[in-house]
Specification:
Elements (H helix, E strand, L loop, with lengths): L2 H19 L2 H19 L7 H16 L3 H21 L7
């Protein structure tokens, strides 16, 4: 895992934790940081989880607009983290 992926995972975990604790402003800041760090990764045409990542991000945005912050935290911590960790390991058979 390179430094940008590590920073991305740290921002993801910070956002999930803040959403679980109900610290919406901090969670939103961490989420923006995560998305900023994630953007170059998913723009890479050989990134194996691009489609899955986009699907989960769409779910995440819908959950955030419903103010379902526990689901947002779950998506961050379990679904998006799997994509990042799978990429780190070079796993191309990962599925949701």
């Amino acid at each position: 895992m390179d430094n940008s992926e590590r920073l991305c995972l740290e921002a993801l975990k910070a956002a999930a934790s803040a959403f679980r604790l109900g610290i919406e402003a901090q969670a939103s800041e961490n989420l923006v940081e995560f998305i900023d760090l994630l953007t170059p990764l998913v723009q890479n045409p050989i990134y194996p989880y691009r489609e899955e990542m986009n699907t989960v991000l769409a779910e995440l945005l819908a959950a955030q607009s419903r103010k379902d912050y526990l689901y947002v935290a779950d998506l961050l911590e379990y679904e998006l983290a799997k994509c990042l960790i799978g990429c780190e390991r070079g796993n191309t058979t990962h599925g949701r």
